[in-house]
Amino acid sequence: MPYFVVAVLTFADREAALAALASPEGQAGSADMGNFAVAGVEVTMWEAQD
């Protein structure tokens, strides 16, 4: 089983996602991942097609 927990975050577009990850809150969330994801983290991004 390759994944134990999956989080899906939805943004209006790629630029909004990158801005959110670069924000102070996004940086704090990224920094906190090591506190609970001790086996490692994989972050991937996909563009949804309607």
What's the helix and strand layout?
Layout: H1 14-22, H2 24-36
Describe this structure in words.
The protein has 50 residues and is mostly helical. The protein contains two helices and no strands. The protein has helices at 14-22, 24-36. The longest helix has 13 residues, at 24-36. The radius of gyration is 12 Å and the shape is flat. The mean pLDDT is 87.
The largest pleated sheet is described as: none
**Category from helices, strands and their pairing:** mainly alpha
Distance between the termini: 29 Å
Strand content: under 5%
The radius of gyration is: 12 Å
Task: Please mark out the parts with pLDDT under 50 across 5 or more consecutive residues, or reply none.
Answer: none
Give the SSE order as H and E letters. Answer: HH
Q: Key features?
A:
flat; 50 residues; single chain; 2 helices; mainly alpha
Summarize the structure.
With 50 residues, this protein is mainly α. It is built from 2 helices and no strands.
